[in-house]
């Protein structure tokens, strides 16, 4: 009886945890929205502005609220440069000077004749306060072909994540207290299972929050560098046809003959099955028609046979 009572109490405690988590989630959500200024990704200047703007006018409050938003800023700049390597080095030094780093890079070498030019892409990460400066510096690298920026507000996502994390951590602590007080094997296993689920969810949400905070703290700029391609081969790079050596000309012509002969042979091999499949029946029909036509012509040319009555009359006249 006592054992059944403990099980009921444990089930009731777990149900209470779920209900309290839902109720506290709504309260924490409202509390977090009211205290959005506690975002750890805010700069010292923004935090000071937020703490000192409580008694200001409504416009100042709106400005502070806008500054406290968690924004993910990204941009793309495509420029044409005269020297790819020099532009890449300058951008790498500039992003390091602004406190950022080169996240990814790709490079492709194009070739036309004996001339080459390079195109590539750099993904730059820079602190959010220096994002505009980096865009300006990237535009000065060469001739701008395209430029765009975008902003994504993730303030609500971070607030929700923080509220859910607080709720889950409260559940985890209560489950740990229940685990310490449990003395039944079945109850211990059930609490362990629930505690493991809560811990996994906490780790997942913390990883997501960390990723969002990193994207907010460091803006991303993708710079596409296109080196100017050569306009065309110079006259010194080409030679007239009559400057070709005799042996080279003969070998080139012989090679052309071989290529043409081989092409004809391959074409014949491709066409032979069609000739056998469709040509032979057509040829047989034509031959049969011509033969029948010739037989009809030969029958039409033969003289008509004399009539028997006419023969008798001719005999009487002779008598």
Automatic annotation (TrEMBL):
Coiled-coil regions listed in the entry: 151-215
- Annotated ranges, domain DUF4349: 69-285
* Composition bias type Low complexity, residue spans: 297-312
Q: State a single Pfam family of this protein.
A: DUF4349
Domain of life, source organism = Archaea
| Keyword tRNA-binding set for record | no
Q: Where are the transmembrane segments?
A: 268-289
Q: Which keywords does the record carry?
A: Coiled coil, Membrane, Transmembrane, Transmembrane helix
- Protein name, please? DUF4349 domain-containing protein
Q: What is the scientific name of the source organism? A: Halorussus limi
